[in-house]
Description:
Helices cover 24% and strands 30% of the residues. The chain contains seven helices and 18 strands.
Amino acid sequence: MLDIKITKTTSPKAKPTGKLGFGKIFTDHMFLMNYTRGKGWHDPRIEPFHDLTLSPACMVFHYGQEMFEGLKAYKAADGSNYLFRPDMNAKRTNNTNDRLCIPQIPVEDFVQAVKAIVSVDQDWIPTEPGTSLYIRPFIIATEPFLGVDVSETFLFMIILSPSGAYYESGLEPVGIWIEDEYVRAVRGGMGFAKTGGNYAASLAGQVKAHDDGYSQVLWLDGVERKYIEEVGAMNIFFKIDGKIVTPMLNGSILPGITRDSVLQICRDWGLPTEERRISVDDLLEAQANGKLEEVFGTGTAAVISPVGKLRYKDDVMVIGDGKIGEISQKLYDTVTGIQLGKIEDKFGWRVKVD
Ligand code: PLP
Ligand code: COI
């Protein structure tokens, strides 16, 4: 149990009005906790949101020893505040930390810290349809040292951002670019971890995709460049001939919490699901046979995002009729319904914040 010292701001900011966008506005407070080798995690505290003062020699700036997470807080119609499966983010934090040689944070301390900062800034949870409070926990290596080594000190922080849809188009289907030149991750690398380096590796492909009018990149496996992995900020699902299919977790893709939730919901509905290797050729063939029925991405920021178009080299696969597919819509309604406290939480995923 953390003993969190809370210092409240004396100059609260005005709450945003109008369209929120994603990740541009920050609340009044932030959570911080330091780590020092030999002492462990210490000084958990909530302070007014502020800039940091760091040595330019901090290891995070040079060798990228850092990690981050993403989850959301939701305000239900009765004013209750909820998190969605925060223990899963805590566990994934520790899997990432192990890969990046960052010390673990006990699951209950991580969840306590998230609850504490959300509770302090709960008036910032937006209530317009499609909005929520995006929560960004992250850890950076702070030792000032230019040798390549494991840092002896770290800083864990949590910042909060009232946000709307990740894609400007909202629930309109997005176009996705299947990247055939760059790769994002390989097995044995860091693909399963949530660390900045994976996203830095993705930018050049994303720029190409954007230049061509596509929203995001769908990555292929780093060795054969043949098998579907995931999208820049979400996992990917296909409805092929009535089956819900998604790439299996193989070490190079992020084990998404929304992915896991969607699989559990589909199984509960009695839909056939498959976690397996899927090649681009499988997709092209399914499309040619009229069996590629729906494509959607899953993620905390992206929620359920329908995909209307997939480009691979000279082929453009147009999926559906330009509108969100039936299962995608049902999943969106169910996932957000559980998150917002509108429907029964039969899986026990909602966690209340007081
Ligand atoms: N894949 C990548 C690369 C991501 O950045 C995200 C977002 O967190 C996801 C998948 C989806 O994960 P989750 O559902 O846990 O948010
Ligand atoms: C999330 O969905 O939480 C993510 O981390 C996606 C992010 C890269 C915007």
